[in-house]
Specification:
Blueprint lengths: L2 H25 L5 H33 L3 H19 L13 H22 L6 H25 L5 H24 L6
Helix pairs in contact: 1-2, 1-4, 1-5, 1-6, 2-4, 2-5, 3-4, 3-6
Length: 188
């Protein structure tokens, strides 16, 4: 998988974190820089480590499914993308305090489950998993910090639209992987 695709995957995965971060900024408009850093770090930690965990799990079963791994990657990425698109239409609940560690950790885990599944699909393509996890974690931190700032400064109009776009990007990457394998475009 090329570096551009890894960045696109990272961007797609950060949309859940961005939507939650915007909501955090809306809910806690008086949030301080260091608290925002702590929340963004938790999101980045989980989002960056989940692909590695998923990749390790995927490597364990790779030999069993090598003949249809591209279909599995396509299905997993498309399912995650479809879930994100579906979630973008659900009304948000703002009855919690995201500055509490338990709440922030729960949000970090919830927004990184998709990254775990993406990590499983990474096992079926040629990829530098450590670099990919670092890129995903770094992008998540930067996007989460930006999201908290956006939430503080806006009415949060873009939150669901951002998650929708992330879903579309992940589905597009799943289609790209499928097409590359079906037409053997990597052999060139």
């Amino acid at each position: 998988m090329d570096l551009v695709t890894i960045y696109l995957v990272a961007i797609g995965l950060t949309f859940d974190s961005l939507a939650v971060s915007v909501s955090t900024g809306l809910i806690v408009s008086e949030i301080r820089f260091w608290m925002a850093c702590k929340i963004a770090f938790l999101f980045a930690l989980f989002q960056g480590s989940m692909p590695l965990i998923g990749w390790i799990l995927g490597i364990q079963v790779k030999g069993l499914i090598v003949d249809f791994d591209h279909w599995l990657a396509f299905i997993l990425l498309s399912a995650i993308g479809a879930k994100m698109i579906y979630e973008s239409f659900k009304p948000e609940k703002r009855e919690f305090d995201p500055t509490k560690f338990v709440v922030a950790a729960g949000l970090a885990i919830a927004t990184s489950i998709d990254a775990l599944v993406v990590g499983v699909s990474f096992a079926f393509v040629e990829i530098n998993i450590i670099l990919s996890s670092m890129i995903i974690g770094t992008m998540t931190f930067l996007v989460s910090m930006t999201g908290i700032l956006i939430g503080k400064k806006t009415s949060g109009f873009y939150g669901s639209k951002i998650e929708f776009l992330g879903g579309v990007i992940l589905i597009g990457i799943g289609i790209k992987i499928l097409i590359e394998h079906l037409f053997d475009l990597n052999a060139a």
